[in-house]
Amino acid sequence: MLELKSLDAGYGTFQALFGINLDVKAGEAVGVIGPNGAGKTTLMRVISGLIRPVRGSITMEGHDVLATPAHRIVDLGIAHVPENRRLFPRLTVDDNLKMGAYMPGARAKYAERLEFVFDLFPRMKERRSQMAGTMSGGEQQMCAIGRALMSDPKLLLLDEPSAGLAPVVVQQVFELVKRIRASGLTVLIVEQNVQQVLKVVDRAYLLEAGSIRASGTSEEMMKTDTIKQAYLGV
Amino acid sequence: MQGFLDIFDIYLLEAVVNGILLGGVLALLALGLNLIFGVIDVTWICYAELVMIGMYGMYYMVQVFGLPYWVAAPIAIMLVAALGALLHYIVIEPLLTAPPINQLLATGGVLFILQSFATVAFGIDFRNLGIRLPVLAIGDMHFSYSRLLAFVAALLGMLAVYFFMTRTYTGTAIRAISQDRQIMSLMGVDTRRIYLITSALGGALAGLAACLLVLQYDVHPFVGLSFGPITFLICVLGGLGNFVGGFLAAFVFAQIISLGGLFSDLEWGYVLAFAFFIVMMFIRPAGLLARRS
């Protein structure tokens, strides 16, 4: 479904990603793990068009993502839940979700999508007229995921969904990821919480200093010595 | 010339009501300016000059070409809306990433261009529509219908903007864009298009104000100076980019001008309003409804 080939990207003169090859097949959940500053967020931003790579190619179901204007990439079926959620704090939950359904194709399915999101997050239905910025971190994460789901995506990009949340809430978020998968969505998730993320994904890539150092199924990754020592603490 | 404020009588209530009526039009102007500032993060120094062009448009359509007022008004609104979009496209868009002072100077330059253009094209004579609306007398108080009409139309205009901003996808995007510019593309929003629509909307509000003000005041190339500065003070007092703050501040200023004019000479109303502004800037530098960040 999504394919990245020999991708170089960065900010100005600083290069953050070196020759990334990565693919996500339809129906899969794939994780990208790695330490702070490894380039995980940059990777997500490149896929959703927030920054443009220096070299390489990205295709989504055969469409050239890099030839698509940034604001049209969501129309290819890619929805990005950015790092730190990035809700519109002084808009209501309803309006935030409405923004997620901004594209004409999504507008037509607005009612149907809203029902889907409220079904997934009943809490959002209770909070629909509340300002998004006044909710708890966990609720904001739900709202951010809900907003991305409003566009009726095929591929959901999740950037550090557990960051800054209490341990109990982290558990809930990963439960949600499982449920989102079960609804048929393809998921690409970036996480520092390696132990948790390997439980919900089929495959994972280890990203260190802008390069992919290892990849494999979750079981394989859990058995890799370097990952065990550096990330799982066993 | 009939000055901006020379209609106040000696009665307090009449002055208060007239202040409210004046506040409506000022609030309309402040909304247009706040919209541009809040969404695009630039200040159109030449905003009142767009109103001036709109007033000339009304004058030519009604007086020279003989169109009825009700036909000319929508055309004038569309004309100034197009002018707003053009201003954004030609002047603002190339300067979007420039330092704010450069943007300010550029729109300041447009102000002089428009004033000089009007002087050359239309001459410095004072013009009016030649339409005299009757005066409403309640007891000893007198209110001109042109002011009542301006107040009601301004409120309707603001109400229309409110519904546009809250009910439509584009309006919601306009409110969202100032809260997080970078991620708008993730929503599928083309920020350039939103900026253009916002500029046209800001222009349309200036056009509506022009249609209303032209019933009360003569047009001349420098008429923008009569309400441009006060509009900026209102926006700053309300908190730049804050729609509700601008709305409230417009009525506060209108009341000060109106009552100040009642107790003394008309010009003293302005003096009081500006003095009040200076004092308020010491008390609440970020505006009446400053957002806690």
UniProtKB/TrEMBL annotation, chain A:
PROSITE patterns, per the entry:
ABC_TRANSPORTER_2
GO BP terms: namely: L-amino acid transport
Positions of the ABC transporter domain: 2-234
Keyword Ion transport on entry: no
- The source's domain of life comes to Bacteria
Keywords of the record: Amino-acid transport, ATP-binding, Nucleotide-binding, Transport
Q: Which GO terms describe its molecular function?
A: ATP binding; ATP hydrolysis activity; branched-chain amino acid transmembrane transporter activity
A Pfam family matched in the record? ABC_tran
Q: What InterPro entries does the database record attribute to this sequence?
A: AAA+_ATPase, ABC_transporter-like_ATP-bd, BCAA_Transport_ATP-bd_LivF, P-loop_NTPase
Q: Which PANTHER family match?
A: HIGH-AFFINITY BRANCHED-CHAIN AMINO ACID TRANSPORT ATP-BINDING PROTEIN LIVF (PTHR43820:SF4)
Name the family: Belongs to the ABC transporter superfamily.
- Function of the molecule: Involved in beta-(1-->2)glucan export. Transmembrane domains (TMD) form a pore in the inner membrane and the ATP-binding domain (NBD) is responsible for energy generation.
Protein name listed in UniProt: ABC transporter ATP-binding protein
UniProtKB/TrEMBL annotation, chain B:
Keyword Ligase among record annotations? no
What keywords were assigned to this record? Amino-acid transport, Cell membrane, Membrane, Transmembrane, Transmembrane helix, Transport
The Swiss-Prot or TrEMBL record annotates one GO molecular function as: transmembrane transporter activity
Q: Name one GO cellular component term.
A: plasma membrane
Biological process, per Gene Ontology: amino acid transport
Q: How does it sit in the membrane?
A: Multi-pass membrane protein
Tell where it localizes. Cell membrane
Would the keyword Oxidoreductase turn up in this protein's UniProt record? Answer: no
Q: Which residues cross the membrane?
A: 15-37, 44-62, 68-92, 104-124, 144-165, 194-215, 270-290
What is the similarity comment for this entry? Answer: Belongs to the binding-protein-dependent transport system permease family. LivHM subfamily.
Q: What is this protein called?
A: ABC transporter permease
Q: Which organism is it from?
A: Bradyrhizobium lablabi
